[in-house]
Amino acid sequence: MTKKIPVTVLSGYLGSGKTTMMNHVLQNEQNLRVAVIVNDMSEINIDAELIANGSGISRTEEKFVELSNGCICCTLREDLLQEVERLARLGNIDYILIESTGISEPIPVAQTFSYLDEELDIDLTKFCRLDTMVTVVDANRFWHDFQSGESLLARKEAVGELDERNVADLLIDQIEFCDVLVLNKCDLVSEVELARLERILRALQPEAKLIWTKNGVIEPAEILNTGRFNFERVSESAGWLKELELGHENHTPETEEYGITSFTYQRRKPFHPLRFVEWCDNMPASIVRAKGIIWSAKHQEVALLLSQAGSSAKIEPVSYWVAALPEAQQQDVFLQSPEVLKDWDALYGDRLTQLVIIGIDLDKKAIIQELDACLLSDKELNEPWENLKDPFNWEWS
Ligand SMILES: Nc1nc2c(ncn2[C@@H]2O[C@H](COP(=O)(O)OP(=O)(O)OP(=O)(O)O)[C@@H](O)[C@H]2O)c(=O)[nH]1
C-alpha cells in the first residue's frame, strides 16, 4: 500500500491573500515535491498565472492544475476528484496544495476528500489524507465585509443567479470550518484592532490555530504536514457549538476583554412564530453570531435552525422533533440515541429552544427580555397553536 498524499486546502474570501501565501510557501518549501491545484471562478485563471510567475512552478508542468470557470465546492467538484486522482497516480509528488476560489465553502471540499464518490466511483481516501484546512482572513476588510449586509450576487461574485449567499454567511462558513486560521494583512491594521479581531475570531472559532501574517509570510510547516485535520473535530469546532456543549462556566475570562461575550438562551416554551421572525429581522447590532435550535409553536413537527451572521439571518426546518414521530420510531431513536431521554419533558418531549448568541458589548438582560417577549404568553399557550399565522409556509412530507 503506497503512502497517502497529504493535502492542504486554502480557503478565504476574495482578495484575502491566498495566492500570496501559496507563492510564499512554494518558494520556501524545498523538501517536498508539491503539486498545486488552483481554482478560479473566471475563465482566465489569474491566480494560476500569479502562482506560475511567483513560485518557480511552470504552468505546463503535470503537477500544476488549473480549475477555472467554476468552484471546486460545487460546479467543479467532479473535476477536482478526477484531477486529484490523476495527480496521486502520477506518483512523483509528496504533497497537494489547493487554493479554492474566494467564494468556495470548505465543508463540501473537505467531504470530497473524506468520502467515496459513488457516482464517479472515486474514493480519494485511498490516495490522499486531508492534512490541514486553512482559512485566510483579511484583517483589514473582515469587519467591513462581515457587516456589509451585501449578497455575493450584488457584488457580482456569485456562482450563478440562484446563489443567494450573503458575504457574511460565506465568511462564517469559512471561519467555522478550518483548523488553521490565518489573519493576513496585519500590516494594514493597528495592534489594538488586531487584538480585538483576534478575540472575535476566537469566539467564532475557538479550536483552530490562529496565526497573524503580513503578505502571506508563514512558516510552511504551519500549514503543511500539520496532521491537524479531523473531519469530526473540525465539524464541531465552531464557537456557537462549543458554547452549546460546554456552557458558559468553561469560558476563558479573557474572551470578555474586548467586550466579546456569548451565552445560551434556553427555554422550554415555544416562540410565537411571527414575533420571533420579527425579532430576527431586527436583531440588536451587538450580535455577531446567533445560531441554534428553535421551537416554534406553529411548527410542532420540526425543529427550526436559526443561523445569523452579520446582518444576514436564515431560519429553516432542520429535523423532526422526536416527540412528533410515531411511537415505534420514537422507540428506535431512544434505543439508538438514549441521550435524547436525558432532556425529555413529560409534556413536550425534546421540544426545546437552545440558541447561542455571540456578540460585542451584548446587553444580555435586554436580549433575554426581548426573546422572552417572543415566547407564547400564558394566554396563547392555552389557545389552539395551529391557528397561529405561519410566516414560512414550508412544505414537507
Ligand atoms: N498590504 C497587504 N497586501 C497584501 C497582503 N497579502 C496580500 N496582499 C495583496 O492583496 C491582494 C490580493 O491578494 P491575493 O493573494 O491575490 O488574494 P487571494 O485571496 O488569492 O485573492 P482571490 O484569488 O481573488 O480570492 C494582492 O494585491 C496582494 O499583493 C498583506 O498582508 N498586506
From TrEMBL:
<dbReference type="InterPro" id="IPR027417">
    <property type="entry name" value="P-loop_NTPase"/>
</dbReference>
<comment type="similarity">
    <text>Belongs to the SIMIBI class G3E GTPase family. ZNG1 subfamily.</text>
</comment>
<dbReference type="Pfam" id="PF07683">
    <property type="entry name" value="CobW_C"/>
</dbReference>
<protein>
    <submittedName>
        <fullName>G3E family GTPase</fullName>
    </submittedName>
</protein>
<dbReference type="InterPro" id="IPR003495">
    <property type="entry name" value="CobW/HypB/UreG_nucleotide-bd"/>
</dbReference>
<dbReference type="InterPro" id="IPR011629">
    <property type="entry name" value="CobW-like_C"/>
</dbReference>
<keyword id="KW-0143">Chaperone</keyword>
<keyword id="KW-0547">Nucleotide-binding</keyword>
<keyword id="KW-0378">Hydrolase</keyword>
<dbReference type="Pfam" id="PF02492">
    <property type="entry name" value="cobW"/>
</dbReference>
<dbReference type="InterPro" id="IPR036627">
    <property type="entry name" value="CobW-likC_sf"/>
</dbReference>
<dbReference type="InterPro" id="IPR051927">
    <property type="entry name" value="Zn_Chap_cDPG_Synth"/>
</dbReference>
<feature type="domain" description="CobW C-terminal">
    <location>
        <begin position="260"/>
        <end position="375"/>
    </location>
</feature>
